[in-house]
Inverse folding.
């Protein structure tokens, strides 16, 4: 479903607390041959945030409780602010945001459709987990792109207000324990498609063991962060 992604690539940084220069130099050397060009990186990142905003906006209409609607509106607003900040950055660099995002519209819309739940609670979990994992991933790529990458990292690290989604999901599970097993299963189902998006932007050679060795630590870190998000909800990853 995501053949388009195999033509592009990023870079990464570790979760260990090291100096910015030390981490940046190590990652840049390890991933510079796998990274996509900066316009591809910016276009993908901007369209992902727009997709999160769209998904959350649709969810608002599906929830009857005013408190839930307000909570989702905060998360949707945070995604929109990140999208708008990335659009501003693209324009500052002389690019056309629509042009840069257009190649990713169809495949990323397919990804969102494939990971959208039947129930609003499943879709809330989808946004929390997939956006968290992919924000982490694009944040790690940022070190490859100099000042533009540092700006992207600051944008992606801004408050996402997705804790509002966590609060709603915890409330649902407290009201009905059956939600726990259902959401645990759904959370595990999301991982494959999400990692496919992340791996697809890397220019990996299928038979190149060295490429795999370079990216394995990053994906191990991404999965560890995913597991922590699941555990914070009382769900088994």
């Amino acid at each position: 479903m995501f053949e388009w992604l195999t033509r592009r690539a990023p870079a990464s940084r570790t979760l260990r607390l090291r100096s910015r220069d030390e981490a940046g130099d190590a990652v840049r050397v390890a991933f510079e041959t796998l990274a996509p060009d900066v316009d591809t990186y910016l276009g993908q990142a901007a369209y992902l945030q727009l997709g999160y905003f769209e998904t959350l906006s649709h969810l608002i209409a599906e929830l009857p409780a005013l408190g839930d609607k307000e909570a989702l509106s905060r998360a949707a607003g945070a995604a929109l602010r990140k999208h708008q900040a990335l659009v501003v950055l693209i324009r500052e660099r002389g690019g056309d945001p629509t042009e840069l995002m257009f190649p990713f519209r169809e495949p990323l819309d397919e990804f969102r459709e494939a990971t959208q739940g039947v129930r609003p609670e499943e879709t809330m979990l989808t946004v929390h987990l997939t956006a968290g994992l992919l924000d982490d991933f694009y944040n790690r790529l940022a070190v490859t792109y100099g000042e533009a990458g540092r700006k992207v990292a600051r944008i992606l690290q801004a408050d996402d207000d997705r804790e509002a989604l966590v609060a709603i999901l915890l409330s649902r599970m407290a009201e009905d324990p059956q939600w726990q097993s259902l959401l645990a299963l759904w959370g595990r189902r999301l991982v494959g498609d999400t990692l496919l998006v992340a791996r697809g932007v890397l220019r990996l050679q299928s038979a190149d063991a060295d490429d795999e060795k370079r990216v394995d630590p990053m994906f191990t870190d991404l999965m560890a962060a995913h597991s922590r998000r699941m555990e914070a909800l009382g769900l088994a990853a």
The chain has one domain: 20-232.
